Amino acid sequence: MVWGREISRRKESRLKKAEPRAQPRARAYTFDLLAPALLLGLGAVFFADVLFSSKNFYYRDILNFHYPLRRVLIDSYARGELPLWNPFVYLGQPMLANPNYMAFYPTNLLHLLAPFNYAFKLHFVLHPILGGLGAYFLLRRLALGPLPSLAGALAYEFSGTVLSFLNLYNLVPAVALIPWIGWAFQGALHGRRVRRTLLLGFLLALQAIAFEPLLFQCCALLLLALTALYITEQDNRKRALRTAIGVLLPAGLSAAGLAAAQIVPALELLPLSARGAGIDYSVASGWSMHPMDLLSIFIPNFYGTLFTIGSVSAWGEMYHEFKDAYLVSFFLGSSTLLLAALALFSQRTKLRNVLLAFCALTLVLALGKFAPLYPFLYRHVPLFDLGRYPSKYFLLATLLISMLAALGLEAALEPRNARAPERTMRPVLAAGLIAGGAALCLGLFWGWKTEALASLMREATPPAIATTKDFQAVAAGLARSLLATGAFFGLTALILSARHRLRNKAGWTLAAVVALELMPPNLGLFPLISDADMDYVPELARTMKENGPAEPFRAVTPNYMNPVPTSMVLKAPNRSAAWFVLYNRRSGQSLDGIRQGLQYALDRSVDYLNSRESDTLMQRSLELTPERKLTLLANLNCAMVPAIGELQDPRLSLIGPIETHSNLDYRLYRLEGALPRAYFASSVIPAASPDEALARLLEANSALAGRVILESPGAVAASGGGAAAGRAEITRYGNNRVACRVSADAPGFLVLLDSWYPGWKAYVDGRETEVLRANYAFRAVALSAGRHDVEFVFEPMSFRIGAAVSVLTLLTGLAAALLAAKR
C-alpha cells in the first residue's frame, strides 16, 4: 500500500509540474493565431486606400515599363499561348527568357480572379504583408517569444526599406520571399527534413523566377547566417555541417530544377543581351547607400517629399547620383533601433553575434562604392558585375535589424536575465533618452530657426538644382521629423525603464510604439494614381494608330530625333510627380502605346536585357546625322516619327501637333518610303561580319527596298540579281508566329524586319528552312521563284529543355514527399 501511495504521489507531482508549462504553450499557440491576424489586419488598414479605391501604383518604372509589359504577358495567357516572344519592344525581344516578366510567378493567377488593374496592384500589396508574416514565423522558429516576434515582424513589414520596394514591380517579391526562405531552412534543419527541404526548394525557385542578382545574394547570405548559427549551436559541428549541406544541396537542386523553365531561357538570353558583356562599374555601383543615408534610418522623411516634379520638396540629390533615391526610404525608427541595441544583453549570444555580424556585412555591401569591399568584389568575383544598385542589400539588413529588435525586446522582458540586470541596461536607456532629448532640441531649434536649416541645405545643394527647391518647406518638414524621432526615442526609453512595473503591458506597448512610429510617416512612400489615369489613352498613341499603315509598323520615341530640352515646363495644376508620368505617356516617352498595338524600335531597356544587336544599333545610331537617322528608321519599318519641334525632310509629312500639356512643340510625322515589315529582296549586299553588316546598314543612303544585307557566305550565289522583283504580304501576325505569302518572279529572299534570335524557325511551303541573319539584326529566308507560304515560328529549344527539367523535378519532388509521408 505504501508503494502504491508513493506511485500515486509521484504521478500527482508530475501532473502539477506539467500544468504551469502547459498554460504558456497554450497561450503561445493562441498568440500564433492572433499575431498573424493582427499583421494581416494592420496590413489591410495600412493599404486601405489601395484595396478599397480605384487608386493604383505608378511611380518610377511601374507605369511606363512594367504595366504595359504585364499587359503583353497576360494577353498572351488569355489567348491560350505561351508568353515566349514580345514583338512590341526593341525590334522584338524574348519575353519568357527575361526574368523581369516573371512569367511563371504565382501572382499571375490573380488575373484570373480580378480585373487587370486590381490584380496588378494586389501584387504590390500582398508581398509586404507576407513579408511580415514570414518574419514573425522565422523568429518563432528561432524560439523567440510570441510578443518579441510580433514586434520584429511589425518593424520589418512597415519599415521604409520594405515599403520602398513597392516602387519596384519586379523586385518586391524578395520582400516576402527572403524571410520565408529563412523560415523554411530553419525548419528543414530541425525535423521533417524531406518535406521541408522540398518546401525550401520551392521558395528558392520562386526567387529564381523573379531573379535579381543582388537580392538572390541576400537570400544566400541569410542562409549562410542561419547555417553558421546552426553549426555553432550544435555539439557535433561536423555533423551539423553535413546536415546543413544535406538540406541546402537538394533544396538548391530542386529550386534550379523547378525554375529551369525560366532559368534555361534566361541563361541563353544573358550572353546575347546588352547585360551579357557585364555592367560598367559606374552603373553597377550607382545608387549606393550614401553614408548620409544612415541618418534616414531613424529620421523619417529625412530628404523630404520626393514625389514632386523636379523634387521641389526634397533635397539630397548630390548623395544619389543627382537623381531621386533608388530606395525612397531606409527608415526603421528610433524605437526599433533602441530595441536592437538591447540585443547586446540577450542570453542568446550565438544568435545575437550571428545577426550582428551579418547585419554589419550587409550594411557594408549596401554602402557599395562608399566602402572598399564592393569594388573588390566587382573586380574579382565572377558574375558579381551583373548586379546593379548596392542599396538593395539593405533589405536584408532591415530584416536582421528587425530580428535584433525582437531579440532585444525579449531580453528586456525577461524577468530574470542574469546577463542584463537593470543597472547594465541603464546606460543604453540613458543613451536613448539623451538621443531623444538631442533630437527634440534640434527639432525645436530648427523649427524656430527654419531659415538657418534651409540655408545649410541650400549651401550643400549645387546651384543648378537649388534654384528649383522650396528649402523653407523642406527644412520645416525635417524639423518635424526630428521632433518625432526625439519623442519616440524618449518614449521607448521610458517604457523600457518602467517595464517591470508594466509587466506584460510593456511588451504590448512597445510593439504598438514600433507600429505607431513606422506606419504614419511611411504611408507616403508609395504614391498612387487613379485607374482612370492608368487606362488613359494618350492622343499621340491614338493618332499614330489611326494614321499608321494597316500592316504592322513601328514608332520611335520623340526624343530620338531631338532631345528633350532642359527648359521643359509642365502645365500642371500642382507639383505631383503623377503629372510628369502622364507627360511621359502623352509625349510617347513610354511603352504605353503597346495597349493600342503600337510597336517600338530603338531604345534601351531599363533592365539591359534587350538583345545586344538592338542595343548596339540604338547606341551607334545616335551618332548619325538627322538625314541618316530617318533613313535608318525607314529601314526599321518606322512609319511614324513623333518629334520635338519641326523636322525638315522631304520624306516627312506632318500629321499634326500633339498636345502634351507642356511648353514644348510636339509634332507627329509620317515617314514616306518606310520599309514594310515583310518585303521581298532580289539583290544582296554582302557583309563579311556582323560589324560590316551594321556599318552597311548605318551608311545606307536610302531605304533598302528590294535589297538585303546578308552575312551568309552563300548569300550572293543564292541571289537572283537585281532585276527581278517580288511581293510579300503578312497574312497572320502573332507574338510567337508570323505567316507570310510571297510571289517571286526570280529567286531571292523574304526579309522580315523582326529581331533575329535563336529559336526562330522558318517553314517554306511546310518544309523547314534556315533562318538567315539579315540587315544586321533581322530575319530572312531564301526562296525560289514562284508563290510560297512562309511561316516563322518561335520554338526555342531552351524553353523545351527547361520545361522538361521543371516537370521532371516536380514529379520527383512529389514522389519524394509522398514517400516521406508514408515513412
Characterize this entry briefly.
The chain is built from 30 helices and 20 strands. It has about 800 residues and is of the alpha+beta class. The N terminus is likely disordered.
List the helices and strands and how they pair.
Elements: H1 2-46, H2 48-51, E1 55-57, H3 62-78, E2 85-86, E3 93-94, H4 116-141, H5 146-157, H6 160-164, H7 173-190, H8 193-209, H9 213-233, H10 237-258, H11 260-272, H12 281-284, H13 334-341, H14 349-367, H15 373-380, H16 394-413, H17 422-448, H18 450-460, H19 463-466, H20 471-497, H21 499-502, H22 504-522, E4 528-530, H23 531-534, H24 539-547, E5 554-555, H25 577-586, E6 599-600, H26 612-621, H27 626-635, E7 638-644, E8 652-658, E9 666-671, E10 678-681, E11 683-686, H28 690-699, E12 707-710, H29 715-718, E13 726-733, E14 737-744, E15 748-755, E16 760-764, E17 767-769, E18 772-774, E19 778-783, E20 786-794, H30 797-822
Parallel strand pairs: 5-6, 5-7, 11-12
Antiparallel strand pairs: 1-4, 2-3, 7-9, 8-9, 10-15, 13-14, 14-20, 15-19, 16-17, 16-20, 18-19
